[in-house]
Sequence to fold (285 residues):
Amino acid sequence: MTDGVHLGSGKVRELYALEGDRLVLVASDRISTFDVVLPTGIPDKGRVLTGLAAFWFARTRSICPNHLLAVRPDGRSTECRRLDMLPIECVVRGYLAGSAVKDYRTTGQVCGHPLPAGLAESDRLPEPIFTPATKAQTGHDENITREQAAGIVGAERLAEIERLSLALYRFAADYALGRGIIIADTKFEFGLDGDQLVLGDEALTPDSSRFWPADQYAPGKAQPSFDKQFVRDFCEKTGWDKTPPGPELPPAVVAGTRARYVEAFERLTGIPFADYLADPSVVLR
Ligand SMILES: Nc1ncnc2c1ncn2[C@@H]1O[C@H](COP(=O)(O)OP(=O)(O)O)[C@@H](O)[C@H]1O
Ligand SMILES: [Mg+2]
Fold:
């Protein structure tokens, strides 16, 4: 059930405006891999993402205010404060993965951060680093330098979002590691409510982060992804060329992937997913 004016569709979520400068973000069960949304959904994926983000929002308020107002009983709709979103993605990396591997190999740096020599793919970095990116309308987001980011949001604002992004990442990465999940990197989006800087969007979910199972961690190669590995492995095997349309997923891949999302939720929150389905407000306590 949704009321309000439909404002738009993202890759995964639908946005509706409510009165009083509020929004509803409705997370669908759409899944993308290699940046292509697949024709088959993963049942309850949107609920897992919504519940996890709300769990983190409720636990990080002392680090940074956020947009969360309520989670609706459907478990996939978040009521939030409507923000003027800053047009950069605030990426924090604690491990060497993804686009950072190539940057490091060619320059010894990642987005202007010099790193020690001899790091292997998936190694933990000496310190988490902030590597902002622009929000691309389609396809891959583009890494930008600190100077470029300062040109977009202003130097003072950039320093503030860097500090907050690092603090949020450190808190969540520690917490998750205690529950067997490495948060290798993650992306935050901030916005303004008047003059107040507020954390928006989703945060610290498997869609906005790389989650790795800690018990299988073995640097020197790419790590299995906690949630999408089944889908990626299946897609690779079909010989699909990674351009749209993506392949349909068979029931076993759907079930295996759903189980991994639910497992990530339960491990991180310590809450049975069935309890969340019965009453989504359990994640806020
Ligand atoms: N509190 C908020 N106010 C206004 N816009 C928001 C807020 N939180 C998130 N958004 C925006 O809503 C959209 C969420 O939809 P999503 O499916 O994640 O889109 P995308 O494909 O851009 O990732 C994003 O564009 C995000 O910047
Ligand atoms: Mg998004």
The longest strand covers residues 181-193. Residues 216 and 228 are 15 Å apart (CA to CA). The pocket of adenosine-5'-diphosphate (ligand 1) is lined by residues 10-13, 15, 23, 67, 80-83, 85, 189, 191, 200-201 (CB under 6 Å).
